Amino acid sequence: MLVEMKDICKDYPQGKETVRVLKDVCLQVEEGDYLAIMGPSGSGKTTLMNVIGCLDVQTSGDYLLDGEDLLGAGSNRLAEVRNRLIGFVFQSFYLLPKLNAIDNVALPLMYAGVPKKERRERAVEALKTMGLEDRMTFRPNQLSGGQCQRVAIARAIVGKPKLLLADEPTGALDTASGNQIMDIFDRLNADGTTIIMITHEQAIADRAKHIHYIRDGVLSAQKEDETEKAEAAGRETEEEPLPSAPTGEDGETDA
Ligand SMILES: Nc1ncnc2c1ncn2[C@@H]1O[C@H](COP(=O)(O)OP(=O)(O)OP(=O)(O)O)[C@@H](O)[C@H]1O
Ligand SMILES: [Mg+2]
């Protein structure tokens, strides 16, 4: 199991009180999986992503990343684990504006101690797999949003991480560029990269193998309205068994 969370809680101090932002989150993600997490603004998606990605530490509960308990690990150790296991992709790309595409992509390899020549070769290779062979020496302000995100993905995967974490990767992109990013994710996942992706968009989430929903810090494999429907259906049959009329208009599918 790559990600194994049990009863994870995350509290933030808020004046004299504390706010519980993650509530008893349990999550298991196997190697090779592709999970989308959906939920309203402020529901705890980024907080959860930060704990999964070892950018933040849970207040309570158990978290094993690739079988390892990192609670109490120092910041150097956490940085080393992040660098080795995890690639991050964010809505706003976070590319360094003064560096061209190759140097942006090569940067994590520098932190990993890879020699300069190999850094450059691997960065070029990663950019080619993103279809950016003709944009290698462009700086971020000379690239489109979709191209910037592809550079950011190249940077995320250049160290061959097991786990790719993406927080609203298509949030700043038009539909066509977003779909291009999703095609890249499909390919990475087919090649064995485990992906956890946060999104607001159903069409984007539908590209994943599974969807989980977070609402007010509570993670569930079921959509809340589906839970309500199931409960309502249960109540109907318990109380007064009425024949249920087919509605055929809510357009929901399980696909
Ligand atoms: N450092 C912090 N200190 C205090 N509260 C925080 C902190 N970080 C996040 N929160 C609170 O935790 C809640 C969840 O925030 P989070 O960023 O995880 O939401 P989100 O689901 O990613 O939302 P969005 O879709 O808008 O990005 C919010 O109510 C936020 O105010
Ligand atoms: Mg967020």
What does it look like?
By secondary structure, the protein is of the alpha/beta class. It has a single domain, classed as 3-Layer(aba) Sandwich (Rossmann fold), CATH 3.40.50. It has eight helices and ten strands. The strands form two sheets. A six-stranded mixed sheet has the order 6-7-8-3-9-10, with helices on both faces. Strands 2-1-4-5 form a four-stranded antiparallel sheet, covered by helices on one side. β4 and β5 form a beta hairpin. α3 packs parallel to α5 (145-157) and α5 packs parallel to α6. The longest helix is centred in the C-terminal third of the chain and has 16 residues, at 175-190. The radius of gyration is 21 Å and the shape is globular. The two termini are 25 Å apart. Residues 45-46, 167 line the site of magnesium ion. Adenosine-5'-triphosphate binds next to β2 and α1.
Describe, in short, the structure shown.
By secondary structure, this protein is an alpha/beta fold. 36% of the residues lie in helices and 24% in strands.
